[in-house]
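Researcher: Structure prediction, please.
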Amino acid sequence: MAAERNLKFIYLLTVNMESANDIRILLVEDDKNLGYLLKSSFEQKGFSVCLSTDGKQGFRSFRQNRFHLCILDVMLPGKDGFTLASDIKKLDDAMPVIFLTSRSLEMDKVYGFQLGCDDYITKPFSVMELLLRVNAVLKRTGPQDTKSKATVFMIGKYRFDYSNRLLFFPDQSGRTLSMKEAELLKMFCEQGNELIHRQYMMNKIWGNDDYYVSKSMDVFITRLRKLLKQDPGIEIQNVYGTGFKLLIHSLP
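Model: Predicted structure follows.
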């Protein structure tokens, strides 16, 4: 078996992040009573909320403003929530998304997580539950402590700038990673060829380890494999039923 090379990493300067008091939320909900209730409740907690009542209006708002989180009803006029989320992800793949829906079909939940959503809430729900879920998502994806350090990793022929979510290819071209792609790759780099258990990865990055999160994580692992395929010495190995390893092989 080819020898494995250790991953190298360099700690850079600290990164300045925004205050949590500056959180802006895009809420797209066609039920006006529910929409105004949620908007009022979140604003009382200090959030800034932009409310849209259909998918097309919501997409216009997203393009015209800067947001930290999107809460999207699935059944929307003009443009449904899944289509809206897909359009949003094309503009900003790292944008956190929470779906609201009256549909509890398993295939809908799987599809939502495959689109890259961070949570999926079935109506009816309490405002407090949604607030807690929003806070959990923002804790994972939102503004971080200003003391957190920027980190650069050398992965085979690649250079990974975690703080800016940039992956530089062997030809020096760069690609911006989504938040979850960056978090997964950073976790692999920090473990340095060691096995990482699935449940640990899901709980650390998604906040839970249910079936839908497992499917979502598999999608992001597949994306990382495609991004790293220019170096044949890099392998994200699936240890069946246990977890994953990032292996860096020495080639002849």
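Model: Residues 1-20, 144-150 have pLDDT under 50 and may be disordered.
Researcher: Thanks, that helps.
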